[in-house]
Amino acid sequence: MKRNWLIIIVASLALILIGLIVKNKFFGKPGPGALQISTTPKATVFIDGTQVGVTPFFDDKLKSGEHTVKLVPEATTDNLVSWEGKVNLTPGILTAINRNFATSEAFSSGEIIWLEKISSRDKSSLSVISTPDQAVVKVDGEPKGFSPVLVENLSPGSHQLSVGTPGYEERTISAKTVAGYKLIVNVQLAQKIEGIEEATPSAELGPSPSPKASPTPKTTPKPTITPPEKPYVLIKETPTGWLRVRMEPSASATEAAKVNPGEMFPYLNEEKSGWLKIEYEEGKKGWVSGVYVELVK
Fold first, then answer.
1. pTM (2 d.p.)
2. What single string gives the DSSP state of each residue in the chain?
3. Is the pLDDT of residue 204 over 80?
4. Core-most of 24, 112, 134, 237, by most CB within 10 Å?
């Protein structure tokens, strides 16, 4: 008798399970996605051509799937450019858009952040994409490579992400990774005009300072027209038309000189965090970013 009851219970559970599968497969609908938007300055938000509000904006009842988002800055007197892009909302997952407007796309910046499920349940990962690419990516101050880059087996929790490359403003992002998910950050860096501070002579208390037609770097390297003995470094085109040589392998290190696209310098067989050591003048050594050089071996 007990056996018959057991068979009936198992059969009932099987019917319930089949019913749930059929319901989810044929009648179930994917849950909504969430979107959060922050901008500087304030902006009007359009989703799929419909005005839905202003920033800061949050909606956790949007239909999952692809949407077109347009952000129009309200400060029209500054001639700031609008932004438009596509996002793919995942059910139950928050997608965040941050945007800093400027007078042109080149000087604008921002990022889109979202999560994707991965196979590991107790670990998280981080994927960084950037415009321009080949930017130096640091997580909690530690260099992780050049974008696009994937950082695996990252401990879940809060992390400080910085993305930067010569000629562009470095962007710092506070992000939180979640166990079982990959955090994806798509960053746009704002181009900056370096060297403006050098166009203004430093304050000197001399009685009659001699006029200067144009600012000069601290050291003038001697360009090499014929290639030096291999290995050597060839300077590539840069957004500014020149490249800084630093005393140490860091964008914050003291500038030693400037070099120009097309110039070639002996490579000293030393590389640190994407920076290459060169001899930019006889007896003088410095570091250049690997983003804008070609190593010829």
1. 0.58
2. -HHHHHHHHHHHHHHHHHHHHHHHHHT--PPPEEEEEEEES-EEEEETTEEEEESSEEEEEEPSEEEEEEEEES-GGGTPPPEEEEEEE-TT-EEEEEEE--SSGGG-EEEEEEEEE-S-SS-EEEEEEEESSS-EEEETTEEEEESSEEEEEEPSEEEEEEEE-TTB--EEEEEEE-TTEEEEEEEEPPB--TTGGGGSPPP---SSPPP-SS---SS-----SS--SSSEEEE---TTSSEEEESSSSTTSPEEEEE-TT-EEEEEEEEETTEEEEEEETTEEEEEEGGGEEEE-
3. no
4. 112
